[in-house]
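Ticket opened by: R.M.
Priority: normal
Category: complex prediction / small molecule

The reporter submitted a protein together with L-homoserine and asked that the result be attached to this ticket for the collaborator who will pick it up next week. Submitted input follows.
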Amino acid sequence: MSDPLRLGIAGLGTVGAGVVRILQENSTIISRRAGRDIRISAVSARERTKPRGIDISGYAWEHDPVALALRSDVDVHIELIGGEAGAAKDSVEAAISTGKNVVTANKAMLAVHGQKIAELAELAGCVLRFEAAVAGGIPVIKALSESMAADRIIRVMGVMNGTCNYILTRMEETGLAYGEIFREAESLGYLEADPNLDVGGIDAGHKLALLTSIAFGTRVDFAGLEIEGIQKITIEDIEQARDMGFRIKLLGVARMTDDGMEQRMQPCLVPADSPIGQIKNATNIVVLEGAAAGQIFLRGAGAGEGPTAMAVLGDVVDIARGRRISTFGQPATSLQPSRPAQSAEVGPYYLRLLLEDRPGVLATVASALGDAGVSINRMRQYGHESEAAPVIIVTHRTTRNRINTAIEGIVGSGASLSDPVALRIEEL
Ligand code: HSE
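Result attached by the on-call engineer:
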C-alpha cells in the first residue's frame, strides 16, 4: 500500500465534524477503496473545545487555518470554513502555494474567485475539487465534468437551495404567507446566517455559476447571473399557479444562446407533474441536458452533515487514488470569457395584476401587451368584492424585455393598483 494521505481540516462546523465522523467510522472501507490509508493530521476551527460529538484529541490543533494549510504533515487541505474571502481563501491560497491539493465546499469563494484560484492551482500542479459546493450530496460536478465530458451540453437546470424549496412547498401545503413560513424555516435552523443568501437566490446562484463554467467551458461569471429571490412570491401566486397545473420553484437555468451565456436564478413556474415540480421540501434536483445524453435528472439531499461530508470525502478518495482533473473540467486558462445574455431565450410568462375595476381597463392592459409584441395565451379575472380586480395572464413565448416593456405600459396607464408580478414559465 502507498503512503497514507494526510489531511488538514479547516472548519469543524456541521460539515467538518461530519467529515471527521465518517472518516473515523468508515476508515477501513475508505482505505480499501482509496488503496491507501487516509488520516487526519491536524484540524482548525474557531473554538477548540466546543462539543461536536467527535473525538479530535488525536489530531494536532492549529488556531490559524493558514498555518494549518502550511503544515508539512498535510497533503490535502480541506477548506470547510466558508465565506467568499478571508480565512477560507487565504488558507486555500496558502495550501496551493506549497503544492497541496485542496478540497472545498465553498461555493461563494469559487463563484467569485474561482478562475484565479483554479489558475493558481493548475500552475502549481495542484488538484482543487469541490463536489460538496453544489447540491450537497448529489454528485453533479462528477456527472458533468467526468461522465458527460464528451457531450455538448445544451442546458443545465436546478433547484439547488433547499431552504427556498422548503418555504415554497410549505406555503403551498399550508396556505400561509411567505413571512410566516420564513419564520418557521428560521426556527428549524434552515436559514444561513445571512438569510438573503438563501431567499435572495445568491447561494443557489453561486452553485449555478460553477455548473455553467463546467458545462459550457466558460470562466465562472457570477456577476453575469440574473438573480431574483423568492421574497415577493405570495400565496396568491402559488395558488394561481397550482390552479393552472404549475408549481413555483426557485429554478436556476443556464444555456448558451446565440446572444451569449444566459444564466438565470429566479422563481419560475414549472409543470406540477414534472420531476422538478415534484421536488418537495429541502430536496434538491439538478437536470443536465446534453445533445447526446438527453436529460439526466439527479435528485437528493442538497445540504446536511452526512450528504455534504460524503461529497467532501469522495473528492478526497479521488485524490488518494491519484485522479487528476482540472478544476472546471478543462485547463483554467482555456476557459472562455463569458458573454452574459440576460433572458435571451424566449418563453411563456405568468403575469399577476391587480387592476382598477373600471370600464376599459382590460383593453388598456391588452393594448400594452400588444404594443410590446406580447401575445396572450390564457387570461382570468377572479371574483372580487372590492374595487381591485385580480387578473392572471399567461402569455405565449416572448422575451423578458418585451414583458418589461408591457409592464411599463400597464403601470404607466394607471390601470395597475400594485406592482405587477411576472414569472417565467420554464419549458422542460
Ligand atoms: N443553505 C443552502 C440550502 C445549503 O438551503 O440549500 C448550503 O448551500
